[in-house]
C-alpha cells in the first residue's frame, strides 16, 4: 500500500518577489482549491510551496533563501510552476554569497549576477549542480509548467502603480537577462504558456497541471487505501512545515 508521502503532490512555485502578487492570488483562490479537491477524491495529497510567503527577511539577509528554495525544489520534484513577467528579480548580495553557495559552489561559476528566480529555474530544469539522473531531469522537463506574461501588460497599469514603477527602474542589462532566460526555457522544450493578464492563469494552469497529476496518479485507491490515506493525511497535516 502506498503511504501518504507516496501519494502526495508538492508543487514548487517560482517567480520574482515583486510583480507577481496578482498571479499568485489567482492560483491560491481559483486553481489550487480545485486541484486539491480533485486530488482528495483520488486519495492524493496536494501541497503548493510558494516561498515568496514562506521565507523571513532574516533568512534572506543571512543568505539562506537560495538553499531553502533548492531544498524545496528537491522535495517537490518533478512538479514545478514558473511565472515570468518583465521584472528580473533580485540577486545574491555579496554578504550572502558564502552561505548561499556553501552547498552549491556552481553558483560562483558565472551565476552570481543571476536573479534568485533564474537560479531556481536553472537548478530545477538544467541541473546545474549535476545531482539528478537523466530520468529525473526528463521528469522535471515533462512535469514543469511555465507562464510568460505579455510585456504589454505593464502598460495597462496606472501611472502610479508600484509594479509599473518597479519595471521602469529595471536596468536594460536585466531586461536582456530576462529575455535570454525565457528563450533558454523555450529552447529546452519546456511546456510554456503566454498570457495577457493574471486572471488568464485560472484556465491556463488548472487543466494542464491536473493532466500531469492525473498522469502521475491515474489509479483510484481502494476503500481501505482511502481510509488509510485519510488517517495518514490528517496526521501528516499536523506536522508538515514548508
Automatic annotation (TrEMBL):
<dbReference type="InterPro" id="IPR051191">
    <property type="entry name" value="DCAF12"/>
</dbReference>
<dbReference type="Pfam" id="PF13271">
    <property type="entry name" value="DUF4062"/>
</dbReference>
<feature type="domain" description="DUF4062">
    <location>
        <begin position="10"/>
        <end position="124"/>
    </location>
</feature>
<keyword id="KW-0677">Repeat</keyword>
<dbReference type="InterPro" id="IPR025139">
    <property type="entry name" value="DUF4062"/>
</dbReference>
<protein>
    <recommendedName>
        <fullName>DUF4062 domain-containing protein</fullName>
    </recommendedName>
</protein>
<dbReference type="GO" id="GO:0080008">
    <property type="term" value="C:Cul4-RING E3 ubiquitin ligase complex"/>
</dbReference>
Amino acid at each position: 500500500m502506498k503511504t501518504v508521502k507516496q501519494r502526495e503532490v508538492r508543487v514548487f512555485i517560482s517567480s520574482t518577489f515583486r510583480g507577481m502578487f496578482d498571479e499568485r492570488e489567482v492560483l491560491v483562490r481559483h486553481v489550487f482549491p480545485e486541484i486539491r479537491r480533485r486530488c482528495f477524491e483520488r486519495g492524493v495529497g496536494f501541497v503548493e510551496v510558494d516561498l515568496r510567503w514562506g521565507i523571513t527577511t532574516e533568512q534572506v539577509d543571512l543568505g539562506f533563501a537560495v538553499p531553502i528554495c533548492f531544498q524545496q525544489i528537491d522535495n517537490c520534484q518533478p512538479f514545478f510552476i514558473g511565472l515570468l513577467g518583465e521584472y528580473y528579480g533580485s540577486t545574491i548580495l555579496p554578504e550572502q554569497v558564502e552561505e548561499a553557495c556553501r552547498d552549491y559552489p556552481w553558483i560562483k561559476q558565472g551565476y552570481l549576477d543571476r536573479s534568485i528566480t533564474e537560479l531556481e529555474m536553472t537548478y530545477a530544469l538544467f541541473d546545474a549542480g549535476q545531482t539528478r539522473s537523466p530520468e529525473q531531469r526528463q521528469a522535471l522537463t515533462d512535469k514543469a509548467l511555465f507562464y510568460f506574461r505579455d510585456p504589454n501588460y505593464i502598460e495597462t497599469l496606472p501611472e502610479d502603480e508600484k509594479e509599473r514603477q518597479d519595471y521602469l527602474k529595471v536596468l536594460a542589462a536585466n531586461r536582456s537577462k530576462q529575455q535570454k532566460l525565457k528563450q533558454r526555457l523555450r529552447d529546452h522544450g519546456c511546456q510554456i504558456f503566454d498570457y495577457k493578464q493574471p486572471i488568464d492563469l485560472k484556465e491556463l494552469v488548472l487543466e494542464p497541471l491536473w493532466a500531469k497529476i492525473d498522469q502521475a496518479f491515474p489509479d483510484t485507491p481502494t476503500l481501505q487505501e482511502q481510509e488509510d490515506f485519510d488517517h495518514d493525511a490528517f496526521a501528516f497535516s499536523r506536522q508538515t512545515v514548508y
